[in-house]
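Review form for a predicted model. The reviewer records the input and the model, then writes brief findings.
Reviewer: anonymous (R2)
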Amino acid sequence: MRNRLAMLVCLFPAWVCAQQSVNQAVTLYGVMDLAIASDSNSGKSSMRVDSGQQTASRLGIRGQEDLGGGLSASFVLESQIESDTGAPSFAGRVFGSQAWVGLSSPIGTVRAGRMFTPYFGAIATNDPFDAKGPGESTRVFYDSGVRMDNTVKYSLPSGLNGFYGDIAWAAGESAASSSANRQVSMDVGYKTGIFNIQLARHDANDAAGATLARSTMIGGNVDLGPVRGWMAAARSTNDTTLNTRDLLVGVSVPFGLNLLSADYVRKTDRNNPNAGAKQIAAGYYHWLSKRTNLYLVSSRLRNGSAANYQTTLPGGTRRVIAVGIRHQF
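Model under review:
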């Protein structure tokens, strides 16, 4: 069985290339991102070679077919990879990053499968670090889950004078209750040439059908040319213990083939004293080509005495410095 799997892996790129020669709408794509990272966690330090400190390493196939009459079909199969070891990021899931098929028309697009939540997409859109790496906001933000399984998602069509939006429903598929593990996620926004503003919501239930979290976020960014500003504010609650507020403010400064980014992220816990956290991060990126860049990112996350976000001990501080290279293809 292992020999057959190895043969399939070896033949897979050749099959994709053959398909591309027949139908140029099918594309093999990916990212390889590796960094050397220094990590100080609650006073204990380590050095490691780490994957995805700017963008998650991945290998994917995407395709689109024009069906005529304004209709088109599309799909994505994407595997997230730990490029320092070659192991899949999601155990037991070959295409754990994304796996969906969709149908587009003049009135919008419907997709079904495993995909990113609209709520997480809104966080990433308004994060100068694209919600990845040592500076990402979701080290502190309550993200309500990055991906949804068993999902049906509708997206508004383009050409609505800058307005856009998505709504996604994920079936819990539990025999115990129709509400168990169910998720609903949505976003709506308005984008012009220089600014974007976005409102997002995510509701998730636990295995018993009770509310795990209700999260609401408003975010935006404005591109003033020499500088770009970023902002996001979120509230997450449930019926029992969860009642937090998250805030991000950031800035990016492009110059030539370079980019400087920085942000400040804060969590406030309304139910639990001293259970908040603060993070400050900065990054430098230098492009060698359109597909390849080098980067240096550093962050410092400090917890309240009753919190341990990203740390092994309550009240701990975590400092991460990553120097890496990213290649996209």
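Findings: DSSP finds two helices and 18 strands in the chain.
Further findings: The longest strand covers residues 26-41.
Recommendation: see findings above.
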